[in-house]
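_Backbone structure tokens_
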Amino acid sequence: MSPVRPSPRLDSAGAVAGHIEALVGIDRRLAPVRDFAGDVQPRITEPGFVGIAHVICGQQLSVASARAIWSRFELLPGALDPVTYLSLSEEAVRATGFSGGKFRTVRVIAEAMVAGELDFAHLETLPAEEAVRYLVAHKGIGPWTAEVYLVFCAGHPDVFPAGDLALLKAVQHGLGLDARPSIKDMIGIAAAWTPHRSAAALLFWRYFAVMRDREGLLL
């Protein structure tokens, strides 16, 4: 009997486990990382306009700060729909804690969606690198934002946000590297984990959290 192929979308615990099993088969260095990290759960959130706005909200902020700002933003009437978002003033959005830059980036996304130039359903059909290019074509969206959206909102199976500081720290520690990898180096390391790079990201984020909570490291 042939082995069961992992689900292409990381939207269930079973799918994540299948991808991690395949990942460890590719790179045996990840076996102790998996054993230490323990259970890795999917982290799927709402896709589309709400999802990308949520990711933009969290750019360069602590989890606690991002959560507090989002809790105010989502209560702002009209904030969660691209059409009605365009009617909101910058003052109203910034009062929730968004910066001017984030207000404008979300507005660019809303305008593109209303104009039919950004289709999140189409985005989910694209290969990883093509999907990233599709998103970063819109002003204000960088690679980290695009990649995090693809992992957490689209459940894309093969994306690794190489610019994420927690991932860089976790990979250095988990693989026993002498120095924290650069973004370029991290892209090269993660390339070997194709087509399971998103599972690798989820694994190392979990590894980072366990190390931080148990031993106070990696902070």
Notes: Residues 58 and 67 are 8 Å apart (CA to CA). The chain has two domains: 13-43+159-215, 48-152. Confidence is low (pLDDT under 50) at residues 1-6. Residues 13-43+159-215 form a domain with the Endonuclease Iii, domain 2 fold (CATH 1.10.1670.40).
